[in-house]
Amino acid sequence: MSSRTVIRGGLVITASDEIHADVLIEDGRIAALAASATPAAEAFTADRTIDATGKYVIPGGVDAHTHMELPFGGTFASDTFETGTRAAAWGGTTTVVDFAVQSVGRSLRQGLDAWHAKAEGTCAIDYGFHMIVSDVNDETLKEMDLLVEEGVTSFKQFMAYPGVFYSDDGQILRAMQRSAENGGLIMMHAENGIAIDVLVEQALARGETDPRFHGEVRKALLEAEATHRAIRLAQVAGAPLYVVHVSATEAVAELTRARDEGLNVFGETCPQYLFLSTDNLAEPGFEGAKYVCSTPLRPKEHQAALWRGLRTNDLQVVSTDHCPFCFTGQKELGRGDFSKIPNGLPGVENRMDLLHQAVLDGHLSRRRWIEIACATPARMFGLYPKKGTIAPGADADVVIYDPHAEQVMSADTHHMNVDYSAYEGRRVTGRVETVLSRGVPVITDREYTGRAGHGVYTPRSTCQYLT
């Protein structure tokens, strides 16, 4: 049975245009757009009409960096694929790309199959996977080719976490050389984990055990050094590079220099680095543990460089690195030893609203908001124009956004499965009202109308953002 929906009277905002237009949706896809109150728009007929007068009509967000159910530090991220994707929908995100994990000694296929099993039949919105490569060897490199062919086209490596996810320079170079051949994109956690471990050991020996020391030992210079090294290894390999969760002025400078040289080097930052700081890590008692993530929060003066990078396109994407751990029973594992605090923050529900606030605060334009949160992540990870825009033929992943509604962020009202909010008490203007995923209402006038299993696995093409 064919189904048709028309969204009338809203301001349609994409990365390239703003137009008062009506949007016709047919069988889960955008069928047509026409300027509002014109004969072409009035000719649209539908089973369901959504009045978007006074509202924005924007593409569903694409969050290209989430960790649902991730095992870390003896525990698991507290959001399942069911709870995490539902919360994402509440926040106006309609696609997530999560990370499947290869364990050392296991194959990529075993890791990918395990993550498919976690996600299948449970997600409220569409999803894809990156592959964390923890064990580079001849078999792994062959598997990378096979995964690219089936739509897992990006591979994450870590210069941090020795003994867990860490790859040395030789392993990184080999994986980059392979990605240069098969079209995959290497995503890099760029911190010098070997040096950081020395500083952790020395800090604990001095009795420096509080959460704030997590930020002090993971120095900005060690993020910048690793970023520089990753860029040069990628240059040697002739491969593109995407650096995740960039947090420091010095790391942005390395990306900027590489891009000025014409290299295919890209950077992502996250809301926590734009809105939070080491002041949060230093909150009294053990409260700072709520803000332990890696790369760590930086002093506030780093924020200006991140905003500037987003404006100049030296940073292209804002993702969340959503990796929640409850304060009670999970973050508390690190009482008396900051190195045992599980690394990660909740944020998948907050990203679109925080970035809209950034528009109001003058950091970004409206179109840039959509570009860094929807269009570019879709292009970067091979989902465009199926995702990330409102155009004929695109999936009808559409958000009706009220730019005037005010809200206070709080654990009391959010939908993430975690017992605190990293943005508790923060007032923002702008709120999601209705969300369609492939034309199906998931949020309807601030009510959840979706279901587990509506979201489907979405294979991806290779990076569409290369110069």
Fold and architecture overview:
By secondary structure, the protein is α/β, with parallel strands linked by helices. The two termini are 43 Å apart. The model has no long low-confidence stretch (mean pLDDT 97). The protein is 31% helix and 23% strand. Strand 11, helix 5 and strand 12 form a beta-alpha-beta unit.
Q: What structural class is derived from the secondary structure elements? A: alpha/beta
Overall radius of gyration: 21 Å
Helix content: 25-40%
Q: State which percent range the strand residues make up.
A: 15-25%
Number of strands: 19
Sketch the major β-sheet.
9 strands, mixed
Can you count the helices? 14
Averaging pLDDT over every residue, what do you get?
A: 97
**Shape, please?**
globular
Terminal residue distance? 43 Å
> Low-confidence stretches at least 5 residues in length (pLDDT < 50)?
none
Write a compact overview of the structure shown:
By secondary structure, the chain is an alpha/beta fold.
Topology:
Elements: E1 4-13, E2 18-26, E3 29-35, H1 39-42, E4 48-51, E5 56-59, E6 61-66, E7 71-72, E8 75-76, H2 81-90, E9 93-101, H3 108-119, E10 126-132, H4 138-149, E11 154-158, H5 169-182, E12 185-189, H6 193-205, H7 212-217, H8 220-237, E13 241-243, H9 249-260, E14 265-269, H10 271-275, H11 278-281, H12 303-312, E15 317-318, H13 351-360, H14 366-380, E16 398-408, E17 427-437, E18 440-444, E19 447-448
Parallel strand pairs: 1-4, 1-5, 6-9, 9-10, 10-11, 11-12, 12-13, 13-14, 14-15
Antiparallel strand pairs: 1-2, 2-3, 5-16, 7-8, 16-17, 17-18, 18-19
Helix pairs in contact: 4-5, 5-8, 8-9
